[in-house]
Amino acid sequence: MGFQENANHSSRAMKGMARVGPYRIRGEWLGVVMMVGLGCTNPPPRRISLDPPLSVAPISQGSAPLPAVSSQGIPDVAEPRSQTPPELDPRPAEPFLTPEIHQLRRLAQDRILGKQSPPGPQAMPYGPAPTADASVGSDAGVVTQDPTYFGQYVPVENEAALESFHRALGRLATARRDKKDTKKVRMLAYGASHTQADVYTGYLRRYLQSRFGDGGQGFVLLGKVNSWHRMLDTKMENQSLGYRHAHYKNDVENEPLGLFGAAFVGTTKNAYGEIIVSHDSPNTRFELHYYRQPKGGDVEIMVDGQVVATVPTESETEEPAYYGFEATAGAHAIRVRLVGNGSVRLFGITAETDSPGVVVDTLGIGGTRMPSALRWSESVWADAIRRRDPVLVTFAYGTNEAGNTAMAIAPYEQRVREVLARLRRAAPQTSCVLMAPFDFPLVHDDTLVRRPVLERIVQAQRRIAKDMGCGFWDGYAFMGGAGSMKRWASANPPLASGDHIHLTRLGYTYVGIALADALMRRYDENPRYWAELSAQSP
Fold it and tell me: Which terminus of the chain has fewer Cβ atoms in its 10 Å neighbourhood, N or C?
């Protein structure tokens, strides 16, 4: 049974530190296990004496039940915590972990890695904090790390910027406890190829849903924007449709590109875009995002070959529009097919459950840069943002910008600030986080060397996040700073690919674990506080 809504649906900062003080990890990272192969002359990886040691039984993929979770979306703890705001200062040196959280992390890891996931309760801990490198000159905040470690815990700077996100999680946890309906908690993850892979975002989706409920897959394009475009649990296909986005298309300017920053367009009869959801999909509610325009053609929505609705896209005015429909849970091929009587512009489909929970929209386009968003129609993007109503938006860019070694930082800063200003105009209360890029070395005379512009981009993003009221997560410091990409690519099994740009599935899972720990640290310190605070909100 379909339901329709065709309308233009509109409706803070700690100073970045150049150095993280040394600390000792008290908990394991139940995430990535590997043997390190960096060459016969290098020492084996250090092991930290964990205090106390954690023993968690291995979880077979998809077979073990989840541990009991409290009303705060966190496994029950022995003692209640005080109802005071979690401290923001000093900067936290480690994540907040419990044995039950470890188990949920492991379950999410297994769902992402499958047979690649290491068996048993072994774990690789976070490495120690890196130190500032004084040889860099004027580039403050550059880090180097002990080469026998891979990754370290990096907190979100300006954790207060996550308040809307944490309040929403508290509200959701309380509603699930009381078996009351509530709106979903949605996270939008923008980025380039690191994000497009849907691995670190896939981990976030699985992990948060295991704690707060499965809200569904989220937004999916009706086709691939490049040959390596993929999503976990969902396939995308298209035939006889062209695609538009602001990276490769030089003629894109103020173009309606919806939520994702991409659109599929066409006029040919029987051309289509399609998503195929897996057999274990819990999604039952779907919504087509499209564009109404003069001389727009009709489209047919088909579920497993049967037409369930015909949607006209013709309108006297140009405006984004939405059409909702339902299907049973489980495997489906959902196709949007052109009738052939006019021009059609399709943005994508959202797939969600009929229950409260978390939704993570993966919105990455390989090769793109954050300022590219300024070439999207702001009004159309803002309408889609308000439609999705996110409580957290992350932006993971910087690698492609660093490809221009002579890039001027001041104009870059100005453009990134304007993108965030657009977000603030569309969703003033939404939490936002800038994610700094990973190490991206230059090749000089067949040798990998430091890329200075990358470090300037990291520091620019730190300044921007502070000024614009967003959190900042330093992916460069997490990875280990200058030279860390080579170590990740040389690990056994590899954590990064031989191009010294992208990570492997294992490496991106590692990122997902670290990012989730950072995003959740302040919430997990005192979940009852956030539940009570959310109850006071309108």
Answer: C
Domains and CATH numbers, the chain: 14-215+357-536 (3.40.50.1110), 216-354 (2.60.120.1360)
- Predicted model pTM: 0.82
Q: SS3 string of 19-74?
A: CCCCCCCCCCCCCCCCECCCCCCCCCCCCCCCCCCCCCCCCCCCCCCCCCECCCCC
Q: Is 190 helix (H, G, I), strand (E, B) or coil?
A: strand
Report the C-alpha gap between 485 and 281 in whole angstroms.
Answer: 36
> 3-class DSSP state for residue 378?
helix
**Contact of 517 with 117, CB cutoff 8 Å:** no
A 10 A CB-CB count for 294 gives: 11
In a structure prediction context, what are the per-residue pLDDT tens digits for the chain, which is 538 residues long?
A: 444 444 444 333 333 333 222 222 233 343 333 333 333 333 333 322 222 222 222 223 333 333 344 444 544 333 334 444 444 445 556 889 899 999 999 999 999 998 777 654 334 456 665 554 433 333 333 444 455 557 889 999 999 999 999 999 999 999 988 888 888 999 999 999 999 999 999 999 999 999 999 999 999 999 998 887 888 889 999 999 999 988 755 667 899 999 999 999 999 999 999 999 999 999 999 999 999 999 999 999 999 999 999 999 999 999 999 999 999 999 999 999 999 999 999 999 999 999 999 999 999 999 999 999 999 999 999 999 999 999 999 999 999 999 999 999 999 999 999 999 999 999 999 999 999 999 999 988 888 989 999 999 999 999 999 999 999 999 999 999 999 999 999 998 999 999 999 999 999 999 999 999 999 999 999 988 888 887 776 5
Contact (CB, 8 A) for 116 and 505? yes
Instruction: List Cβ neighbours of 138 (8 Å cut-off, separation of 6 or more).
Output: none
